Amino acid sequence: MIRLKNSSSNSKKKQLDIHAPKHFSLILVIGLILLLVTVFASLVLGARVVSFQELMDGLFYQNQDSYGANVVQKRISRTVFSLCCGVALGIAGVLMQSVTRNPLADPSILGVNTGASLFVIIGITFFHINTAGQYIWLALIGAAITAVFVFGIGSMGRGGATPIKLVLAGAATSAALSSLVTAIMIPSTYAMDQFRFWQVGSVGSGSWDSIAIFIPFLVTGVIIALVSAPALNALALGDDVATGLGVRPGMLRFFAICAGVVLCGVTTALAGPIGFIGLLATHAMRLVIGPDLRFLIPMSALAGAIILTFSDVVGRLIGSPGELEVGIITAFIGAPILILLAKRSKVRSL
Amino acid sequence: MSNTHVFRVDNLVSGYENKTIIHGIDLEIPRNKISVIIGANGCGKSTLLKTMAKLIKPTEGDVTLNGKAINKYPPKQLARILGLLPQSPVVPEGITVADLVGRGRFPHQSLFSGWSKKDYEAVEEAMEFMNIKEFADLDIDELSGGQRQRVWIAMALAQQTDILFLDEPTTFLDITYQVEILDLLTNLNRKFGTTIVMVLHDINLSARYADHIFAVKSGKLVAEGKPTDVLTADLVKTVFDLNCVVIPDPISDTPLIIPKGRYHVKDESATL
Ligand SMILES: Nc1ncnc2c1ncn2[C@@H]1O[C@H](COP(=O)(O)OP(=O)(O)OP(=O)(O)O)[C@@H](O)[C@H]1O
Ligand SMILES: [Mg+2]
């Protein structure tokens, strides 16, 4: 209904600006190159550095009996698994941050990680459960119950589920659940042993089997995230403006949290709790491309995959001839970078 | 251009949790006109506007658009007819002007359609209309309060609705910006017949720019009509509990309210 008379010649350029963040294609290309480099490093580097010939053998299933080719093939599944985890955690991070409108929200902030851990430790201790296929359901149930619980508490009182109440409820719940985890684990040496490795977070156990379990959840979560990106963009302007634009904030939050819980719960079940990725990937990308979620969600997925895989490679190099679990590395890389990010005034609050 | 939407409020009761704020309001919004809601702080203006915009669910009564309750419309469809600018919207930091204005296009976009040519045009036109095209690529945080307010209104314009609700679009603005914003809104109304309902605190600017006034006191509608008919010293006394003298505005001939306090009156011992 509003008509513009003089569509000037540089209007084309303006249109591009609305559509994509500045230098978006350049950033995307750089990201993809980094991804390739990281994947390459993940296949080649580790306790045993493989030669180019061995890499080719492993990739194309030739010379099956050579040790190098075997190493490469193990690393292929490990790399794919770590990419999946990175994508899942990156997206779970953006979703949680958008929903709580809290720039520091990580899946762990709603206590989702801890809830998943608690259920897994209960399974290990009391039901002697020890396969990934069983962990995953326990972790998902734990993550979901925790999310519902935290959401329930956070919605009580005035104004429904405000960001600040959600974060407080999440932090309190998380603290309570952690002490439960410890209380259950300490008396049981069996659980300790089983749980210790899992609790640190590692992609070393990533096999094609766990990837197969992962994929359906990953795809579901990613689709929900991408589809809700425009509505989440509107939600960023506050619940009132969003409602005025035709969004149902309650329903949108519910779906976005579900997707976040599934992504983070499944990752936690298969790899153990890995912190910081969601936070790190999203913040790094937000600094570079800005807050538009239609771009931020896929780019955080990319960044998450790169950072996690890179951390895994670093863990293998530092820990050689054994390896350092990736959860330790992400904490080490993550913490200082996060402090740096937080110190730079350009870190965006939402 | 004009629109034919009939927006009615019948026997409306609403509020927060178990606190009732609006106690039975009936009104019909004049089509293609600018209406202004006036009333003292806390009398329920924002609550009324929010209930009319579906942000608050009425406890009793109906809010209807063309005879159909607004909550019966699919949300996006309603958002293509009715736009809202709340009193103090949240600004996500780091968002550019063009991006923010573009978010007003949400109700016009479907899951897979993405950005159409019409969307780009609407955004560009809205920015042109509010004179903010030169800021398109700037961060919102780099703008002054008045420029920022223009950006928000541009976002609402990009939504291209026939009815537009604005809660205090001129707060925090200096007098020049206030007049400018009201002029721009009048432009919008004259050019496209957009039905505008807004809350304003400056009663004299309300008198000048409104076609229709709704006066609210303690959650009830105490008067409505053309400013010249409604804005009397008696009404100001009722609604704001303020003594005043009403004279014709030398510029617009609309009522001009001259408040009378306890001091600085020519003869302080006189009428109080
Ligand atoms: N979210 C809320 N929860 C509970 N009570 C509220 C809420 N918002 C407003 N109120 C109360 O409702 C009453 C009316 O508020 P409202 O915002 O509608 O007033 P207003 O006329 O817009 O005032 P102002 O001119 O200051 O904007 C006030 O007493 C206020 O305390
Ligand atoms: Mg108000």
UniProtKB/TrEMBL annotation, chain A:
Any one GO MF term held by the record is: transmembrane transporter activity
Q: Which domain of life is it from?
A: Bacteria
Query: Subcellular localization, per the record?
Result: Cell membrane
Q: What does the entry list under GO cellular component?
A: plasma membrane
One GO BP annotation is:
siderophore-iron import into cell
Kindly state which keywords UniProt assigns to this record, in alphabetical order. Cell membrane, Membrane, Transmembrane, Transmembrane helix, Transport
A Pfam family annotated for this chain is FecCD
> Entry's SUPFAM superfamilies?
ABC transporter involved in vitamin B12 uptake, BtuC
Asked if the keyword RNA-binding belongs to this entry, the reply reads no
**CDD domains found in the cross-reference section:** TM_ABC_iron-siderophores_like
Q: Where are the transmembrane segments?
A: 76-96, 108-129, 135-154, 166-191, 211-233, 254-281, 293-314, 326-342
Alphabetical list of InterPro entries matching this protein: ABC_BtuC-like, ABC_transptr_permease_BtuC
Q: What is its main location?
A: membrane
The record gives the membrane topology as:
Multi-pass membrane protein
List the signal peptide residues.
none
Q: What's the family?
A: Belongs to the binding-protein-dependent transport system permease family. FecCD subfamily.
Q: Give the protein's recorded name.
A: Iron complex transport system permease protein
UniProtKB/TrEMBL annotation, chain B:
Primary localisation category:
membrane
Q: Which superkingdom does the taxonomy of this entry point to?
A: Bacteria
ABC transporter domain location is 7-243
Keyword Cell membrane carried by entry = yes
Q: Where in the cell is it found?
A: Cell membrane
Q: What Gene Ontology biological process does one annotation of this record name?
A: iron ion transport
Membrane topology of this protein: Peripheral membrane protein
UniProt GO molecular function = ATP binding; ATP hydrolysis activity
User: What CDD domains does this protein's entry cite?
Assistant: ABC_Iron-Siderophores_B12_Hemin
Q: Which Pfam families match?
A: ABC_tran
Give the CC-aspect GO terms. Answer: plasma membrane
**Record-given protein name:** Iron complex transport system ATP-binding protein
Classification of source organism: Bacteria, Bacillati, Bacillota, Bacilli, Bacillales
